[in-house]
Amino acid sequence: FYDEAHKRHENFPPGPLKLPVYGGYWIILSKAYKNLGLATMRLAKQFNTKVVGLYLGSCPQVLVNDPELVKEVLLREEFDGRMDTILGRVRGGWKKLGLFFTDGFFWHTQRRFSLRYMRDSGFGRRCEHLEEAMTQDFKELMDIVKNGPKNDDEKKIINGDLIYLPHFFDVPFLNGMIYVFTKSSLPREKYPMLWEVGRNSLGFQRCSNDLGGALCITPWLKNILPKFSGYHDCLERTATIKQFFREIIQDAIDTYDDKYERHFIDSYIKRMRQELKENNRTTYSVEQLEMICTDYTFPSGSGAEMVMTFLIERMLIQGEIQDKIHEEIDRVVGFDRLPTLDDRCNLPYTEACLREIMRSDTLVPLGIGHRTLTDTKIDGYTIPENTSVSVNLMSLHLDKKTWGDPENFRPERFIKDGKLDVGLDKSLPFGAGRRLCAGETFARQGMFLLLAMFMHSYHVSTVDGKPLKSRSKRIEGLISTRPEFWVRITPRNQSVL
Ligand code: HEM
To answer: Which cofactor does it need (predicted)?
Structure first.
């Protein structure tokens, strides 16, 4: 037992013992059960290293806990793989599908194709049609607030002057994605479907953690503890989102005409058929198209909304932030129209608040795990091929040398001479390199647009009217989330409706 616990690859980074079955997994959790970023920092301190090495079961796992090394790993190609885990397999019906959990030629081809098409639809540059669609959805929400919900589904999200976060923001983000895929969005009668996708997106994010959870180390847990291990949620939540897209894709296939390329789904089908005809084989398939739609959709229905929710929670703790955003929006936009993305460069404080919340409240603390594609080195240590490598983005976002006062929420740190200076933003909430978040532009622009419209239209307070004393406990999942909650909104600037 002693020998086994101390057995390590040669020159592997220092770290905890390899205990039976789970290796060092429970040791990390014991450092900070609900906060793997903090746990990583504590392990790094304990072993006096920037790179921690341990084993999850028998699989080598490296945790990188240093701002410079984090960037290095994200930028070096030999770290670009993804582990082949049960989590990824369950989602794809035991096949390796989608974008998040695939790698190599398949991932590269599918990511490049989708982003090449979606580049003009708000994923590379601004898309006015997408902005109009998201603005229209926001106006519908304002209408529900003003005139009251029409049914029980609406009441679950908007009830009098109370709104339910983060799901209040489901409609514009998810309908936005549907617009990107199909060039049309769902009308108000179908919003309950979007709320269902939103609930499942958030549920999926909570089915595991940044290290894959116990299920990835001991997949047999799916048979004996399907609910507790997260297996059930992973399967069911993804199945619901996939089913939602299956119907949209089937409809596109049924009405497909080679001569007209109506939208992304058509162009994907076209490429699939072309490649099959010419080469008799292809990485394109209807199943993969379902997974692509799912992989772009669930972060929209959870991640981007959670960042906005974190920021609203911060405003309920530090009331002056809300006052400053209101002051800026009123001065720049006025009272006769809603803000647009044209206003972004003139609303530096509002934009800085989004950047500061993503720095101070890291959404994906250990990023999405990478895999080494070959034997390699980091900080002098040897990392064998097929090692899972996670970068602790919190080690960068809370680094004292980089930020001076990382513990303070201070959007002004990004503002110089009254203007936003993006050069001052050293945070990497979306990662970097070839695995950079595929939705960064969509997320940044969507969050800004919705935040600006929301703050232009409402004052926000707690249900009991008292300021919050502190942030709520985070739920550690694939991303960090806070529990859903109701907040009170008081209309302002309503003449735009
Ligand atoms: C504020 C919100 C968001 C944050 C902070 C965020 C952050 C991240 C991070 C850290 C990664 C992993 C990067 C890596 O592997 O090193 C990632 C991957 C990804 N994100 Fe996001 N994300 C957000 C929103 C979105 C949205 C709205 C979408 C889609 C519309 C999206 C789509 C993706 C995809 C497809 C990947 C996988 C990329 C790949 O493996 O090639 N994300 N994101």
So the answer is: heme
Ligand 1 in reach of 315 Cβ (< 6 A): no
Query: Which ligand 1 atom is at minimum distance from the Cα of 358?
Result: 5
Distance from the Cα of residue 256 to its chain's centroid: 32
199 contacts 165 by C-beta, under 8 angstroms: no
- With tokens 């800085």, the residue in question is 352
Asked if residue 362 lies in contact with residue 315, where contact means CB atoms within 8 angstroms, the answer is no
Confidence check on the interface: ipTM exceeds 0.95, yes or no? yes
**Sequence-separated (6 or more) residues with CB below 8 Å from residue 81:** 103, 104, 370, 371, 372, 373, 386
437 is in an annotated binding site: yes
**Nearest-angstrom CA–CA distance, 419 and 43:** 39
- pLDDT tens for 389-410 read 999 999 999 999 999 999 999 9
Q: Does the Cβ of 431 fall within 6 Å of ligand 1?
A: yes
Ligand 1 pocket check for 435: Cβ under 6 Å: yes
Conformation bin of residue 83: beta by default, left when phi > 0, alpha when psi is -120 to 50: beta
Q: Which two tokens stand for residue 290?
A: 């379902």
pTM: 0.96
- Contact between residue 294 and residue 116 where contact means Cβ atoms under 8 Å apart: no
CA distance 44 to 121: 42
